[in-house]
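Why should sequence recovery work at all? Because a backbone constrains its sequence more than one might expect. Tight turns favour small or flexible residues, buried strands favour hydrophobic ones, and helices have their own preferences. The token representation captures these environments compactly. In the example below, the structure is given first.
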């Protein structure tokens, strides 16, 4: 059940500029209407006040003149009477843990100007709620409470946030502009708010990230309805919210797209330490590998921002003489609502890299992080709403049941990264709605090593690509095809390369990661007996540790040569010549990547022309992902579609043909 915390004033008066006390409290409509809407939605509601004092209603807010007549006033009074016990015995703010609630709501009235504006417990609740990414709703004068929320360095927590509140014009119309010790609009602007006011007493709400604000009493119901949609966890409701946002056209302007990319960059820079800690908790990633995920994303964002306007420009197309005079162009339209299903091996990188393209193309996005990387999943769910447009970006956590429920919904594109078995499930679900898919899968990516290559350099580069992230990389070299007499010499070089990378005991290296869980550790340990052990072979199930392992004299039919290894086990297969290597590759599923270490231009040409793979790299491994103008994707069993840079815009856009023929 969704739980809501109402933080309500306990003040019975407001001290005016001349020192007199004006009777006040909470404004009836601002508490009663949201309370009713949340109750009808089935929410559990807790009311809290400073010191746990009874929450007083401003009697002026029950007058017929401010409620559209006597029936409206009576309706509010009746509702407040129905919850009078709750209002008479609220919780104490000092004892409230905001983490126990799914959203927090502040009703207004002049009372908050007296007490919540200086209440440290309220400031603690506001700070924690905003930082948690959960929805925070504040209406009218209750925004005075925001003034107490501070960062550790003393700066205002809400600086730069777009918001609305009871305006100077409304205060003047109510007769308090000259009497107030300070005006709320002025104070919020002074503190650094991006204040937006509508015409006096017009219902008006503003949403900025996870902050939801309403201008005046008449905005209360609309604000509560927005919060109900924001707190929804049912997949159908979440998708409906994202589709509703897309249908308004809000995500189409270049300015919105660039703002989201800028916010994503800010998130990555401000929260890099937290993300790196999560990656270490999930996969044992050391500082270099963990920051590698962050830096890749920063580069992807920067490259996209630098070129986005150019990429989105309509492309002119030639028109045949038959249709002249006429003009033709190709326009890139956003698709709509995009579902991103992320994997566990690079749980930050592979969640946010496709998001860069989806947002840049003008879509709304629903992200499903991997439940197998729970720390990173939780960080994404908490932090993304703090930085991105919450009405356009949503995160749904969970495992198979939640993913299954999501796949029952209609999306406009589904982007999945993972294994082929689940990829088929995703594709089958998408087919029911004729939804296009991108499948970033994997496969057994070979590394061809030819005589004449510098084997020391080759071994270093293969080892670095293979054993990074404990071998859990979709484009890691899966096995080596050693041509001619290179296998024996390569064994010694690989052994030396591993020690150079991780020292004599990789288990003690801060840069060598863990296997994701015990099940995968068991799977990998079962492969260690295939062939002859060259180096490694140690494993510890409890520590989720598999030592970097090289196997030689491996049969092509051995279990280790069956499915993708996806771990730190590297088999060497000896083949007599390049023809045999090419035949070996072509007899199997098309790999996500093919690597070759050779000094022969003829060999490079043959591999380019005679093999098929998602990517082909000479002299390196895995590095093609970091070239922003290269597409990344698989072919056949290794995937469908591509992304990165402009290719992401292409993936998440519809290329619309436009032909314009004058009528005269």
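From this structural description, the recovered sequence reads:
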């Amino acid at each position: 059940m969704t739980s809501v915390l109402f933080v309500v004033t306990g003040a019975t008066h407001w001290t005016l500029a001349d020192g007199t006390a004006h009777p006040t409290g909470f404004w009836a409509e601002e508490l009663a209407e949201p309370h009713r809407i949340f109750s009808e939605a089935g929410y559990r509601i807790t009311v809290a006040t400073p010191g746990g004092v009874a929450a007083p209603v401003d009697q002026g807010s029950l007058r017929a003149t401010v409620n559209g007549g006597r029936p409206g006033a009576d309706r509010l009074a009746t509702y407040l009477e129905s919850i009078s016990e709750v209002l008479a015995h609220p919780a104490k703010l000092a004892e409230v843990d905001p983490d126990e609630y799914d959203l927090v709501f502040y009703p207004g009235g002049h009372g908050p100007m007296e007490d919540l504006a200086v209440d440290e417990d309220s400031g603690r609740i506001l700070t924690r709620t905003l930082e948690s990414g959960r929805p925070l709703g504040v209406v009218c004068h209750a925004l005075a409470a925001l003034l107490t929320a501070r960062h550790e360095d003393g700066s205002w927590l809400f600086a730069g946030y777009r918001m609305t509140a009871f305006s100077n014009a409304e205060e003047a119309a109510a007769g308090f502009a000259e009497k107030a010790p300070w005006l709320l609009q002025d104070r919020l602007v002074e503190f650094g708010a991006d204040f937006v006011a509508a015409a006096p007493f017009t219902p008006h709400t503003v949403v900025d990230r996870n902050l939801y604000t309403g201008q005046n009493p008449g905005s209360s119901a609309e604000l509560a309805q927005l919060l109900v949609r924001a707190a929804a966890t049912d997949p159908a409701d979440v998708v409906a919210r994202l589709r509703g946002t897309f249908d308004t056209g809000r995500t189409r302007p270049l300015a919105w797209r660039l703002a989201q990319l800028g916010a994503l960059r800010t998130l990555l820079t401000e929260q890099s330490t937290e993300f790196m800690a999560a990656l270490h908790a999930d996969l044992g990633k050391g500082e270099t590998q963990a920051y590698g995920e962050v830096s890749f994303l920063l580069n992807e964002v920067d490259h996209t921002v630098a070129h986005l306007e150019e990429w989105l420009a309509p492309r002119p197309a030639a028109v045949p003489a038959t249709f002249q005079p006429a003009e033709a162009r190709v326009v890139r339209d956003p698709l709509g609502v995009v579902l991103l299903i992320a994997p566990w091996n690079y749980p930050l990188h592979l969640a946010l890299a496709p998001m860069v393209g989806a947002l840049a193309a003008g879509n709304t996005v629903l992200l499903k992080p991997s439940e197998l990387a729970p720390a990173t999943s939780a960080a994404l769910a908490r932090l993304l709403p703090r930085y991105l447009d919450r009405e356009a970006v949503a995160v749904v956590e969970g495992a198979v049941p939640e993913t299954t429920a999501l796949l029952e919904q209609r999306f406009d594109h589904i982007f999945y990264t993972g294994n082929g078995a689940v990829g088929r499930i995703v594709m089958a679900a998408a087919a029911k709605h004729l939804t296009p898919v991108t499948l970033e899968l994997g496969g057994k990516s070979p590394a061809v090593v030819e005589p004449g290559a510098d084997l020391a350099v080759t071994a270093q580069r293969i080892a670095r690509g293979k054993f990074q992230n404990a071998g859990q990389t979709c484009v890691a070299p899966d096995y080596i095809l050693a041509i001619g007499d290179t296998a024996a010499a390569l064994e010694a070089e690989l052994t030396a390369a591993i020690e150079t990378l991780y020292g004599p005991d990789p288990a003690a290296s801060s840069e060598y990661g863990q296997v994701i869980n015990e099940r995968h550790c068991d799977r990998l340990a079962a492969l260690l007996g295939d062939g002859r052990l060259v180096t490694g072979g140690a494993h510890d199930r409890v520590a989720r540790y598999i030592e970097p392992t090289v196997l030689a004299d491996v049969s092509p039919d051995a279990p280790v040569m069956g499915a993708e290894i996806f771990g730190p086990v590297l088999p060497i297969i000896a083949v007599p010549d390049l023809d045999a290597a090419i035949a070996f590759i072509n007899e199997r599923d098309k790999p996500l990547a093919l690597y070759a270490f050779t000094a022969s231009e003829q060999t490079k040409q043959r591999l380019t022309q005679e093999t098929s793979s998602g990517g082909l790299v000479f002299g390196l491994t895995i590095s093609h992902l970091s070239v922003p103008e290269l597409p990344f994707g698989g072919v056949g069993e290794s995937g469908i579609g591509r992304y990165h840079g402009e290719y992401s815009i292409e993936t998440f856009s519809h290329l619309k043909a436009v032909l314009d023929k004058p009528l005269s």
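A few observations help interpret the result. Residues 243-441 form a domain with the Aldehyde Dehydrogenase; Chain A, domain 1 fold (CATH 3.40.605.10).
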